[in-house]
Amino acid sequence: MYNRILVAIDASPDSPDDSLNRTTQFATMTGGTVYLLHVARGHIIPADISAGSGLGVRSAEDDVDVRERQVVQHAVDQLAAAGIDVHGEMIEATERDAAEVIVQRAKELEVDIIVLGYQHHRGSAVAEHVIRQQPHCSILLARPPLSNG
Q: 15, 39 in Cβ contact below 8 A?
């Protein structure tokens, strides 16, 4: 049923996203392949424009935080160590375009379900935009972990 699973994570250093345990459980239950996606926040950097200087737009390679790459790599390694077929990917986009990127990759990868980490559970513009786009597959919004105190 869920053979191809797109899991959108927030790999920002200040993110409380701990969805890996749930992803491991879900992928183990379904036997599916996990496509881990982090949409890195890209920026257009203002700069003086003069003849021959090009625009003040930084490349994805320049703008993506090394720590975000490390978080994604760690997540891929952790899922692979649990025996899950996993592929990690980072795509740079403005925050406004994050939902479009998620839905586009879901379509391109022909996934059966999109899983959005719990940071998208309530009041998330990204989750709302993903839902409004009515993707071809199911959407699962992870609930925040229960507090133990």
A: no
